[in-house]
Amino acid sequence: MKALLITRDGDLQAELAAQGAARVPPLSLGACRSSIQDALDRPLPDQPALVIIDASELDDNDAAHLERLAKHYPGASLMLLTRAHHQELLIRAMRAGVREVLQLPLVHRALHEAIDRVAAAAGVTNMRDGKILAFIACKGGSGATFLSTNFGYALAALADKKVLLIDLHGQFGDATLYVSDQKAAMTLSDVCRHIARLDAAFLESSLVHVSPGFGILAAADDPSQAVELKPEHMDAILRVARQHYDYIVLDVGRQIDAISLRALDNADVIYPILQLGLPDIRDGRRLLDIFRSLGYPIEHTRLIVNRYEKGGKLRLQDLQSALGAEVVHTIPNDYIAVTDSVNQGVPVLRLSRAAPVSRSLADLVELVTARRVVENKGLFDRLFGRADADQ
Ligand SMILES: Nc1ncnc2c1ncn2[C@@H]1O[C@H](COP(=O)(O)OP(=O)(O)OP(=O)(O)O)[C@@H](O)[C@H]1O
Ligand SMILES: [Mg+2]
After folding, report:
1. What are the alphabetically sorted keywords of the record (predicted)?
2. CB 365 within 8 Å of CB 347
3. Which residue, judged by its Cα, is nearest atom 12 of ligand 1?
4. pLDDT digit string (tens) for 126-173?
5. What does the pLDDT read at residue 324?
């Protein structure tokens, strides 16, 4: 996809060129003009798909020319970058048909999401709009790996979704072993090492395929290779994954490092997994405090209680008040079905469909797929809505 950029700011030009080049497929800055007038005086021979206008130095004269520019490039989407939400300018922009307004300095994730929308509208890609669901254990052995792998399988099997699971355990990642007997030929660190080759086909070929709709990207099993992993790699992998999978499930493990943090930053929903006991609640509170300090909205954090047994001394209500977060689901303690599944490396749903734990996973699939995780915001909301809507 080609873009025309209108700015006097060399740093912004370099930033956009770098972000555009990192996309799959790339967004190339076909040309740069210093003002709208300059763009009108020196039109491009080919229609760009996107015109990005730096409005931080836009004067009234320029603003008046916005509509002319839009008419000149009727096939292009217009994107405005502003330092302040200047009401009058925004109204003019809407009249001119501007589709996207982003705040400067640029938040890269918001930029890529906006470009995704433009690309989808232009029919450049037939992208999916995958949701990232992170499973994180509050305490060792809470069941995050069992649940994330079996939930991923259930999503693909019961809801007919295309699902990718990424095993983010820094060391001793074991997600593939829970649901498959295949050995991973490629791991997360292999993908990062060849990040320049990353596209949908490369990602798909790096997976352990558990079923036609469900693949797992195995953890980096050799700690010495972990140096290859950089937070930017996580962004790139998740960006490609969102375009080609309906759901990306993350088995985050317990350690919060630069990589898992970047993955969590990208998550639409975080599911901390815990059991109903005081040590789990203590660790859960610590984890949620970390999320609060990182500015994650609490409504995106939804607790799942694993190995739940009714009638215990602690009630779900006590847990919710102690942690200040909602328990969205409970998974029953189902020792026999789970142990059989884990020991054989076969998804519990395939092994014992009628087991209580399988039925509970099916309920979770329904819960997740019935409500859209993040509602798409309309243009008006994006123009005038909360700034963090685009973060
Ligand atoms: N609902 C359940 N009922 C019975 N047993 C369970 C249930 N969920 C998990 N288990 C058992 O708990 C064990 C630990 O689960 P799992 O490995 O998924 O935990 P984890 O949170 O990923 O731990 P780690 O901190 O090691 O990554 C599993 O081997 C499984 O046998
Ligand atoms: Mg685990």
Report:
1. ATP-binding, Nucleotide-binding
2. no
3. 143
4. 567 899 999 999 999 999 999 999 999 999 999 999 999 999 997 778
5. 93
Assess whether the C-beta atom of 148 lies below 6 angstroms from ligand 1: no
Q: Are 82 and 91 in contact (CB under 8 A)?
A: no
- Distance, CA of 231 to CA of 257 (rounded, Å): 10
Q: Determine the distance separating the centroid of ligand 2 and the alpha carbon of 174, expressed in angstroms.
A: 7
Closest residue by Cα to residue 2 from 117, 124, 87, 85? 124
Residue 191 Cα to ligand 1 midpoint, Å, equals: 27
Using one digit for the tens of pLDDT, what is the confidence trace for 312-349? 889 999 999 999 999 999 999 999 999 999 999 999 99
DSSP structure class, residue 218: B
How far away, in angstroms, is 194 Cα from ligand 2 center?
Answer: 26
Domain-wise residue ranges, the chain:
2-127, 131-370
By CB atoms closer than 10 A (0-12, 13-18, 19+), residue 36 is: buried
Ligand nearest to the CA of 305: 1
What is d(CA 117, CA 97) in angstroms, rounded to the nearest whole number? 15
CATH architecture of 2-127: 3-Layer(aba) Sandwich (3.40)
pLDDT at 119: 83
In a 13 Å sphere around the CA of 228, the CA atoms on its Cβ side amount to: 17
Domain 131-370 class? Answer: alpha beta
362-379 mean pLDDT: 66
- E-strand spans in the chain? 2-6, 28-33, 50-54, 77-82, 98-103, 131-137, 163-167, 208-211, 214-217, 247-251, 269-274, 303-308, 327-332
Six-digit token string for 198: 């990353």
Mutation to probe ligand 1, out of 136, 145, 336 (largest number of atoms < 8 A from CB): 145
Ligand 2 centroid–CA 323 distance in Å is 22
Per-residue confidence at 378, pLDDT binned at 50, 70, 90? very low
pLDDT band at 385 (very low <50, low <70, confident <90, very high): very low
**How many angstroms separate the CA atoms of 335 and 110, rounded?**
44
Q: What is the pLDDT of residue 387?
A: 36
Answer yes or no: same fold for 2-127 and 131-370: yes
Q: Determine which helix (DSSP H) or strand (DSSP E) holds 109, and give its type and residue range.
A: helix 108-121
Q: Ligand 1 pocket, 275 CB below 6 A?
A: no
